[in-house]
Structures are given as C-alpha cells and as structure tokens.
Amino acid sequence: MQEIAYVSAPQAILRDRVSAVFTKTGVVKNGDRVQILEREKRFARVRTASGVEGWMEQRSLVPESVYQGFQQLAQQQQNAPVQAAGTTRNDTNIHLEPGRETEHLYQLNQGSKVVILKRATAEKTVPGAVAKPANPNKNESPKPTTPAMEDWWLIRDPDGRVGWVLARMVDMDVPLEIAQYAEGQRPVAFFVLDQVADGDKKVPQYLVALSEPKDGLPFDFNQIRVFTWNVKHHRYETAYREHNLNGVLPVTVSQENFDKEGMLPVFVLSVTDDNGNISERKYKMNSPIVRRVLAPGEVKEPSTLRKKSRHH
Length: 312
Fold this sequence. Notes:
By secondary structure, the protein is mainly beta. It has 3 domains: 3-62, Roll (SH3 type barrels); 77-124 and 147-170, SH3 Domains (SH3 type barrels); 174-310, no CATH class. Helix content is 5%, strand content 50%. It has 2 helices and 23 strands. It has helices spanning 64-76, 176-179; strands at residues 3-7, 11-15, 24-29, 33-40, 43-48, 53-57, 61-63, 84-88, 92-95, 104-108, 113-123, 149-156, 162-166, 170-172, 186-198, 201-211, 223-230, 235-242, 247-257, 263-272, 278-286, 289-293, 309-310. The strands form 6 sheets. The chain has a 5-stranded antiparallel β-sheet. Strands 13-12-11-8-14 form a 5-stranded antiparallel β-sheet. Strands 15-16-17-18-23 form a 5-stranded antiparallel β-sheet. β2 and β3 (24-29) form a beta hairpin. The N and C termini lie far apart (70 Å). Mean pLDDT is 90; it is low at 303-309.
C-alpha cells in the first residue's frame, strides 16, 4: 500500500541522491502531495503528482493523517460565523491545534488576509529553554510557577484552509475610525450592524467586542461597545457599552422583525457565569438605542449600561 505525505516546508529541492554532491531533479512546494517510495536516515525518496522523483528531508513532510485533520477542521468550521478580519504580520505556520509544538502543514506569507473564527489559549513553549535552578534559600518554599499562556486564533485563509495561528502574528483590520476609541483595550471581534445615510454616503455602524491587552485570559472578551453615527455632527458616538462580561466567541449578528419597530439589527453574546455555564444574551438596536431582548421568563440583571458618550 502506498504511503502518502504532504510538504510542510515553504518549498524543498528534490535531489537524485543522498550525498553532498547531487543533481536537482525538481522542486516541491508547501501543501504538495507526494508518494513516499523509500526512507534513508533523515531523507525520503518521493514521487510527485507529476511523476518527478527525488530525495528530500523527512522533516519537511507530514503524514497524510495531518492533511486529513486539516480537511476535517475546514469542514467542521465551514458555517462558523466570522468574528473579525486580519492581516498576517509575518510568515507564519497554520497549526492543526493551538500550540507551537502541534502539527502544522500550511504556511501563510506576510501580509496574507485571514478571517478569525475563534480564540484559544495554549501554554507558551520556548524551544531550548533551560529550567531555572532550584531556590537556593532552603527556608523559603519555592513559589509555584504558573506557565505563560499565549493566545491563538482559529483562522480561514482565502484558499479556504482553516487552522490555528499564533494571535500575535495577526494584526486586526479594525476600521481606523472606531479603532481610535479602543482606550487601550484589544479588539477581538467587530461587526457592521447596519448602515445609515449621511448625505450621499452610507456609513456603517459597528459592534466591537474588546478584551484586556494580554494573553491567556479566561474569557474571550469582557466588554462590548456599539458605535453609531451621528448624522447631525458627522461623527461616531458610543451608543452602548457593557463591561465585566465573561464573554465567549462566537458573537452572532443578524436582523429580526420587531412588529412596530420593523426589521432591526440583532446581536447575541455568549457569556459564562461563575460556575462555567454558558448563557446567551440577545440585544436589538433601534438606532441609536440598544436594548436587551429578554427570552420568556428571563430576568434582566442590574444594568452595566453607561450613558451615551460623545466623541469629539
């Protein structure tokens, strides 16, 4: 039975023999499917889809199971709501699971456009890190060290490939006109709720979910803000903000019919309570007013709404 593998390096040279002096027989690129014909130490002899054969380093190959894992992930997430758009800051690997040591296959070039679907955290692993020496002061009990955590984004790229990338490798493409009001918080998701006419132009109104600017937090976001456009003064205003949320992505945005009020933008947040139970909160925007939409039997908690603030 033939053994199939996939090229995980950006590209690799195929050589006619395993030695210091060799003739190049071809080149394989990231994501290429190859058949493994034989192995020798750190090399494998492969045959490409076009029939070219040659030796290449085994470390530039991943087994077919990794490729299948990516196919499965893309299928699972095909209907996942997009939370934000971003651009890669550097060349970066797409991993099958969050974590630097996890399997990876595909590579994104610097400046690649991606959409963000979810967030996760993983322990930060630094290759070749040396463990700290034991505490020299015998009388003091050593403090337990909590591992450093890193944020990861589940992304989809323009080719439809889905996987995890280190969050700090992606710059969020938050529109500048609302990004300037982040007040030191980190936007993790943003959505256009609707558009309003100002003269002959259409201006989007936004929902933004924000978090504290550090990795490894137990929530995906802890604050939301709704930015509406003041047609009279031609500027954005914060129509609604809510703090102290234990928010979990994804946030969903849609439209709903509210009888006399007509079709309105609606958004749903998922939040966890102290016991880790997730509940959903629905909101409607009849611009510029944002209100909770309570489910039958649902009681509204004390409001953390802050009054409308103006941006000058």
